[in-house]
Amino acid sequence: MKRIILWVICMIISKLVYAQPQYITTIQPFKMIMIELIGETGTVDCILPPGASPHTYELRPSDVKKIANATALVMGGRHLDDWAYSLQVRNRIELMHYVPKELFLPVLQRADEHHSDSPHDHDHGDMDPHFWTDPLIVKRMIPGLLSRLIEIDPDHANVYTMNARRFENELDRLIDELLHLFELSGRKPVILSHPFFQYFLNRFKIDLIDVIEKVPGKDPTPRELSKMIRSAEKGQNSIILTHPQLPDRSARIIAESLNAELLELDPLGGRPHRTSYFELIEYNARLLSEAFKSE
Fold first, then answer.
1. 177: which of 92, 211, 218, 256 is 20 to 30 A away, CA to CA?
2. How far is CA 125 from CA 73, 83, 201, in A?
3. What is the pTM (predicted TM-score) of this model?
Protein backbone atom coordinates (compact mmCIF):
# COMPACT_ATOMS: atom_id res chain seq x y z
CA MET A 1 0.00 0.00 0.00
CA LYS A 2 2.81 2.38 0.90
CA ARG A 3 4.44 1.70 -2.47
CA ILE A 4 1.22 2.56 -4.29
CA ILE A 5 0.81 5.82 -2.36
CA LEU A 6 4.44 6.73 -3.04
CA TRP A 7 4.01 5.97 -6.75
CA VAL A 8 0.89 8.17 -6.93
CA ILE A 9 2.69 11.03 -5.21
CA CYS A 10 5.62 10.73 -7.61
CA MET A 11 3.27 10.76 -10.60
CA ILE A 12 1.50 13.88 -9.34
CA ILE A 13 4.82 15.67 -8.76
CA SER A 14 6.06 14.59 -12.19
CA LYS A 15 2.96 15.97 -13.89
CA LEU A 16 3.20 19.25 -12.04
CA VAL A 17 6.83 19.69 -13.00
CA TYR A 18 6.16 18.69 -16.60
CA ALA A 19 3.23 21.11 -16.81
CA GLN A 20 5.50 24.03 -16.03
CA PRO A 21 6.68 25.88 -19.15
CA GLN A 22 10.42 25.71 -19.65
CA TYR A 23 12.06 28.68 -21.37
CA ILE A 24 15.64 28.69 -22.66
CA THR A 25 17.43 31.95 -23.49
CA THR A 26 20.60 32.49 -25.49
CA ILE A 27 22.16 35.06 -23.13
CA GLN A 28 21.90 36.07 -19.48
CA PRO A 29 20.09 39.44 -19.93
CA PHE A 30 17.26 37.68 -21.76
CA LYS A 31 17.03 35.22 -18.88
CA MET A 32 16.79 38.15 -16.47
CA ILE A 33 13.98 39.74 -18.49
CA MET A 34 12.08 36.48 -18.84
CA ILE A 35 12.30 35.73 -15.11
CA GLU A 36 10.59 39.05 -14.39
CA LEU A 37 7.61 37.98 -16.53
CA ILE A 38 7.53 34.24 -15.81
CA GLY A 39 7.91 34.45 -12.04
CA GLU A 40 7.18 31.12 -10.35
CA THR A 41 5.02 29.72 -13.15
CA GLY A 42 7.89 28.12 -15.05
CA THR A 43 11.63 27.77 -15.34
CA VAL A 44 14.08 29.95 -17.25
CA ASP A 45 17.55 28.69 -18.15
CA CYS A 46 20.35 30.20 -20.22
CA ILE A 47 22.60 28.57 -22.81
CA LEU A 48 25.62 30.89 -22.60
CA PRO A 49 27.59 30.72 -19.36
CA PRO A 50 28.72 33.99 -17.73
CA GLY A 51 31.72 35.43 -19.57
CA ALA A 52 30.87 33.91 -22.97
CA SER A 53 30.13 36.10 -25.98
CA PRO A 54 26.99 35.45 -28.09
CA HIS A 55 28.99 36.53 -31.15
CA THR A 56 31.52 33.70 -30.83
CA TYR A 57 29.76 30.96 -28.83
CA GLU A 58 29.76 27.37 -30.15
CA LEU A 59 26.85 25.14 -29.16
CA ARG A 60 27.41 21.88 -27.31
CA PRO A 61 25.28 18.73 -27.93
CA SER A 62 23.79 19.15 -24.45
CA ASP A 63 22.66 22.66 -25.42
CA VAL A 64 20.85 21.35 -28.51
CA LYS A 65 19.02 18.70 -26.45
CA LYS A 66 18.01 21.22 -23.80
CA ILE A 67 16.64 23.62 -26.41
CA ALA A 68 14.71 20.87 -28.24
CA ASN A 69 12.86 19.97 -25.03
CA ALA A 70 12.04 23.55 -24.04
CA THR A 71 8.69 25.28 -24.36
CA ALA A 72 10.38 28.13 -26.22
CA LEU A 73 13.80 29.47 -27.17
CA VAL A 74 14.26 33.18 -26.44
CA MET A 75 16.89 34.88 -28.61
CA GLY A 76 17.84 38.36 -29.78
CA GLY A 77 18.26 38.57 -33.53
CA ARG A 78 20.69 38.98 -36.39
CA HIS A 79 24.23 40.15 -35.56
CA LEU A 80 23.87 38.81 -32.02
CA ASP A 81 22.94 35.13 -31.76
CA ASP A 82 22.60 34.07 -35.41
CA TRP A 83 23.60 30.50 -34.50
CA ALA A 84 20.24 30.04 -32.76
CA TYR A 85 18.33 30.32 -36.06
CA SER A 86 19.47 26.86 -37.16
CA LEU A 87 18.04 25.09 -34.10
CA GLN A 88 14.87 23.04 -34.15
CA VAL A 89 12.52 24.46 -31.50
CA ARG A 90 8.88 24.16 -30.49
CA ASN A 91 8.50 27.93 -30.23
CA ARG A 92 10.93 30.73 -31.01
CA ILE A 93 10.76 34.18 -29.38
CA GLU A 94 12.92 36.74 -31.18
CA LEU A 95 13.02 39.76 -28.89
CA MET A 96 14.09 42.26 -31.55
CA HIS A 97 10.66 41.81 -33.15
CA TYR A 98 9.08 43.50 -30.12
CA VAL A 99 11.37 46.54 -30.05
CA PRO A 100 9.68 49.57 -31.69
CA LYS A 101 11.57 50.28 -34.90
CA GLU A 102 12.07 53.95 -34.13
CA LEU A 103 14.13 53.02 -31.05
CA PHE A 104 16.78 51.04 -32.92
CA LEU A 105 20.27 52.47 -33.40
CA PRO A 106 22.25 51.46 -36.51
CA VAL A 107 25.19 49.16 -35.80
CA LEU A 108 27.92 51.63 -36.72
CA GLN A 109 26.21 54.86 -35.76
CA ARG A 110 27.24 56.87 -32.74
CA ALA A 111 24.55 57.45 -30.12
CA ASP A 112 24.91 61.24 -30.33
CA GLU A 113 24.21 61.17 -34.10
CA HIS A 114 20.94 59.22 -34.01
CA HIS A 115 18.64 61.38 -36.07
CA SER A 116 17.56 59.19 -38.97
CA ASP A 117 14.39 60.41 -40.66
CA SER A 118 13.56 56.94 -41.95
CA PRO A 119 14.21 54.34 -39.24
CA HIS A 120 11.76 51.97 -40.87
CA ASP A 121 14.02 51.71 -43.92
CA HIS A 122 16.48 49.59 -41.90
CA ASP A 123 16.28 45.83 -41.62
CA HIS A 124 16.94 44.31 -38.19
CA GLY A 125 20.24 43.03 -39.56
CA ASP A 126 21.47 46.63 -39.88
CA MET A 127 20.63 47.45 -36.26
CA ASP A 128 22.70 47.33 -33.12
CA PRO A 129 21.23 44.28 -31.32
CA HIS A 130 22.32 45.26 -27.77
CA PHE A 131 18.96 46.91 -27.05
CA TRP A 132 18.61 45.53 -23.49
CA THR A 133 21.11 48.06 -22.11
CA ASP A 134 18.35 50.71 -22.39
CA PRO A 135 15.66 50.12 -19.72
CA LEU A 136 13.12 52.16 -21.67
CA ILE A 137 13.47 49.91 -24.71
CA VAL A 138 12.97 46.88 -22.47
CA LYS A 139 9.78 48.49 -21.18
CA ARG A 140 8.54 49.26 -24.68
CA MET A 141 9.03 45.65 -25.84
CA ILE A 142 7.08 44.14 -22.92
CA PRO A 143 3.57 44.39 -24.51
CA GLY A 144 4.62 42.38 -27.58
CA LEU A 145 6.54 39.85 -25.51
CA LEU A 146 3.60 39.48 -23.13
CA SER A 147 1.24 38.73 -26.02
CA ARG A 148 3.61 36.07 -27.32
CA LEU A 149 3.90 34.41 -23.90
CA ILE A 150 0.11 34.32 -23.51
CA GLU A 151 -0.15 32.79 -26.99
CA ILE A 152 2.30 30.04 -26.02
CA ASP A 153 0.98 29.49 -22.49
CA PRO A 154 -2.58 30.87 -22.10
CA ASP A 155 -3.09 29.06 -18.77
CA HIS A 156 -0.78 31.56 -17.05
CA ALA A 157 -2.02 34.71 -18.84
CA ASN A 158 -3.09 36.45 -15.63
CA VAL A 159 0.25 35.84 -13.92
CA TYR A 160 2.23 37.02 -16.93
CA THR A 161 0.11 40.18 -17.20
CA MET A 162 0.47 41.01 -13.50
CA ASN A 163 4.24 40.45 -13.61
CA ALA A 164 4.56 42.58 -16.75
CA ARG A 165 2.80 45.55 -15.13
CA ARG A 166 5.03 45.31 -12.06
CA PHE A 167 8.14 45.05 -14.24
CA GLU A 168 7.13 48.13 -16.25
CA ASN A 169 6.67 50.18 -13.08
CA GLU A 170 10.05 49.09 -11.72
CA LEU A 171 11.73 50.01 -15.01
CA ASP A 172 10.25 53.51 -14.74
CA ARG A 173 11.75 53.85 -11.27
CA LEU A 174 15.12 52.58 -12.53
CA ILE A 175 15.24 55.14 -15.34
CA ASP A 176 14.44 58.00 -12.94
CA GLU A 177 17.06 56.76 -10.49
CA LEU A 178 19.81 56.62 -13.13
CA LEU A 179 18.94 60.00 -14.64
CA HIS A 180 19.34 61.46 -11.17
CA LEU A 181 22.59 59.52 -10.66
CA PHE A 182 24.19 61.02 -13.78
CA GLU A 183 22.93 64.50 -12.97
CA LEU A 184 24.84 64.26 -9.70
CA SER A 185 28.02 62.75 -11.17
CA GLY A 186 28.13 64.71 -14.40
CA ARG A 187 28.95 63.15 -17.77
CA LYS A 188 32.15 62.73 -19.80
CA PRO A 189 32.60 61.59 -23.41
CA VAL A 190 33.41 57.91 -23.89
CA ILE A 191 34.84 55.55 -26.51
CA LEU A 192 33.47 52.01 -26.85
CA SER A 193 35.77 49.05 -27.51
CA HIS A 194 32.83 47.32 -29.24
CA PRO A 195 29.27 48.53 -29.97
CA PHE A 196 27.90 46.93 -26.79
CA PHE A 197 26.60 49.87 -24.75
CA GLN A 198 25.47 52.62 -27.09
CA TYR A 199 21.77 52.22 -26.21
CA PHE A 200 22.56 52.94 -22.58
CA LEU A 201 24.74 55.92 -23.52
CA ASN A 202 22.04 57.26 -25.81
CA ARG A 203 19.32 56.95 -23.15
CA PHE A 204 21.30 58.74 -20.46
CA LYS A 205 22.77 61.42 -22.76
CA ILE A 206 26.41 60.35 -22.51
CA ASP A 207 28.46 61.46 -25.52
CA LEU A 208 29.92 58.61 -27.61
CA ILE A 209 33.05 59.67 -29.52
CA ASP A 210 33.78 56.46 -31.44
CA VAL A 211 33.60 52.66 -31.52
CA ILE A 212 36.97 50.90 -31.87
CA GLU A 213 35.88 47.46 -33.15
CA LYS A 214 32.67 48.12 -35.03
CA VAL A 215 32.47 44.42 -35.94
CA PRO A 216 33.14 42.19 -32.89
CA GLY A 217 36.34 40.23 -33.30
CA LYS A 218 37.61 42.34 -36.21
CA ASP A 219 40.51 44.57 -35.15
CA PRO A 220 40.81 48.01 -36.77
CA THR A 221 43.70 48.49 -39.18
CA PRO A 222 46.74 50.56 -38.08
CA ARG A 223 45.44 53.41 -40.25
CA GLU A 224 42.02 53.26 -38.59
CA LEU A 225 43.64 53.19 -35.15
CA SER A 226 45.70 56.28 -35.97
CA LYS A 227 42.60 58.08 -37.24
CA MET A 228 40.70 57.27 -34.03
CA ILE A 229 43.56 58.50 -31.88
CA ARG A 230 43.80 61.79 -33.81
CA SER A 231 40.04 62.27 -33.58
CA ALA A 232 39.95 61.55 -29.85
CA GLU A 233 42.87 63.93 -29.21
CA LYS A 234 40.82 66.81 -30.61
CA GLY A 235 37.99 66.21 -28.16
CA GLN A 236 37.70 66.27 -24.40
CA ASN A 237 39.41 63.83 -22.08
CA SER A 238 37.51 60.58 -22.57
CA ILE A 239 37.05 57.17 -20.95
CA ILE A 240 37.40 53.97 -22.99
CA LEU A 241 34.78 51.36 -22.15
CA THR A 242 35.58 47.66 -22.58
CA HIS A 243 33.79 44.48 -21.56
CA PRO A 244 35.04 41.04 -20.44
CA GLN A 245 33.40 38.95 -23.17
CA LEU A 246 35.76 40.06 -25.99
CA PRO A 247 39.49 40.98 -26.17
CA ASP A 248 40.44 44.62 -25.52
CA ARG A 249 43.84 44.73 -27.27
CA SER A 250 43.00 47.66 -29.58
CA ALA A 251 41.32 49.55 -26.73
CA ARG A 252 44.52 49.29 -24.67
CA ILE A 253 46.62 50.63 -27.54
CA ILE A 254 44.37 53.70 -27.86
CA ALA A 255 44.18 54.19 -24.09
CA GLU A 256 47.97 54.19 -23.85
CA SER A 257 48.30 56.66 -26.73
CA LEU A 258 45.74 59.02 -25.20
CA ASN A 259 46.69 58.42 -21.57
CA ALA A 260 42.99 57.62 -21.14
CA GLU A 261 41.26 55.55 -18.47
CA LEU A 262 40.04 52.05 -19.30
CA LEU A 263 36.80 51.05 -17.62
CA GLU A 264 35.40 47.52 -17.90
CA LEU A 265 31.61 47.30 -17.97
CA ASP A 266 29.53 44.12 -18.16
CA PRO A 267 26.65 44.03 -20.67
CA LEU A 268 25.76 40.37 -20.01
CA GLY A 269 26.07 39.73 -16.27
CA GLY A 270 25.22 36.40 -14.72
CA ARG A 271 27.92 36.89 -12.10
CA PRO A 272 27.41 37.54 -8.36
CA HIS A 273 25.48 40.77 -7.74
CA ARG A 274 24.62 40.92 -11.46
CA THR A 275 21.99 38.19 -11.65
CA SER A 276 18.86 40.33 -12.11
CA TYR A 277 18.18 42.91 -14.78
CA PHE A 278 18.13 45.72 -12.23
CA GLU A 279 21.38 44.60 -10.63
CA LEU A 280 23.08 44.45 -14.04
CA ILE A 281 22.04 47.91 -15.20
CA GLU A 282 22.70 49.54 -11.81
CA TYR A 283 26.13 47.87 -11.61
CA ASN A 284 27.24 49.44 -14.90
CA ALA A 285 25.64 52.80 -14.15
CA ARG A 286 27.43 53.13 -10.84
CA LEU A 287 30.78 52.20 -12.37
CA LEU A 288 30.28 54.91 -14.99
CA SER A 289 29.13 57.56 -12.54
CA GLU A 290 32.11 56.92 -10.25
CA ALA A 291 34.46 57.21 -13.24
CA PHE A 292 32.85 60.52 -14.22
CA LYS A 293 33.31 61.87 -10.71
CA SER A 294 37.00 60.94 -10.61
CA GLU A 295 37.80 62.51 -13.98
1. 211
2. 19, 14, 21
3. 0.84
